[in-house]
Amino acid sequence: MTTVGELLREWRQLRRVSQLDLAIAADVSARHVSLVETGKSNPSAAMVLRLADQLDVPLRDRNRLLLAAGFAPRYAERPLGDDALSAAKRALERVLRAHEPYPALVFDRQWNIVMTNRAVDPFLERVSPELLKPPVNLLRLGLDPRGFAPLVVNLADVRKVFGARVRRQLAASPDPELAALYDELLAPAEEGVSIESDVLIPMIIRLDGRELRLFSTITTFGTPQDITLDEVAIESYYPADAESAAHFENRTVAQ
Question: Which residues form the HTH cro/C1-type domain (predicted)?
């Protein structure tokens, strides 16, 4: 069984922080950090969380650290439908609804789609039913030939952008399932691909005889204390030119 000291050392090395730097940030001695990592000192739950906070450890992994140290998990993981998360769910729904007529969706740490707004529906109509079986994965939708891939004009650019995002995510918080998805969908095609852009790299989708140019932003909860909220993000798509904006706005008027 992996000890709390070994886990803390793994996170410290992942963040490329020295024992001294961690000690200064956490307001403890470097010797104490060393003793905890080597198992010669048993940290309190408060100390585990203090060190984890300085290392920006995700909530799911903070629970793992606490368990390894002999303490009960601190952070719950509730489904979005749970009463305790009702306010957060309503906030997500408001953000999605307010972003219409442009597409927006909520996805979890493995890029599985949790919620969407109505502007996403026309795109899903063109996807193979096999890809719409839960959990619906955003990476698969974007890169699988049965999904959006045949519609994406600049697929190599989009693949590169997705690849960079997933690599950053894995570097910040390793996840075996996401790593396997990366190896399957992204790693084989990333070598030798370069992107040139002055400002933003749009996703260019050919739809109904026209090209739609979209860029996206990511929104997360600022101070989550629940694992589910810690791991979800909203991806909001915006038109990159007037013609693309008109497409979505005219669709709304037609409805």
Answer: 8-62
What is the rounded CA–CA span in Å between residue 204 and residue 157? 10
Cβ contacts of 143-146, under 8 Å, gap ≥ 24:
143/185, 143/186, 144/185
Structure tokens at 140: 């698969």
CATH assignment, 4-68: 1.10.260.40
Burial tier of 174 (Cβ tally within 10 Å: 0-12, 13-18, 19+):
middle
pLDDT of residue 246: 94
Q: What are the extents of the domains in the chain?
A: 4-68, 83-154+197-254
Secondary structure (3-state) at 199: coil
Share above pLDDT 70 across residues of the chain, in percent, rounded to a whole number: 94
How many other CB atoms sit within 10 Å of the CB of residue 128?
13
CA angle 149, 131, 77 (to 5 degrees): 115
| Angle of helix 19-26 versus helix 30-38 axis, rounded to 10 | 110
Q: Is the pTM of this model over 0.85?
A: yes
Rounded Cα gap, residues 69 and 2, in angstroms: 10
* Residue 144 tokens, joined: 């699988």
CATH of domain 83-154+197-254: 3.30.450.180
Alpha helices in the chain (DSSP H): 4-14, 19-26, 30-38, 45-54, 59-68, 86-99, 121-124, 138-143, 155-172, 176-185, 187-190, 227-231, 242-254
Return mean pLDDT, the chain: 93
pLDDT band at 199 (very low <50, low <70, confident <90, very high): low
Instruction: Using the predicted structure, report yes or no on whether residue 197 has a pLDDT greater than 90.
Output: no
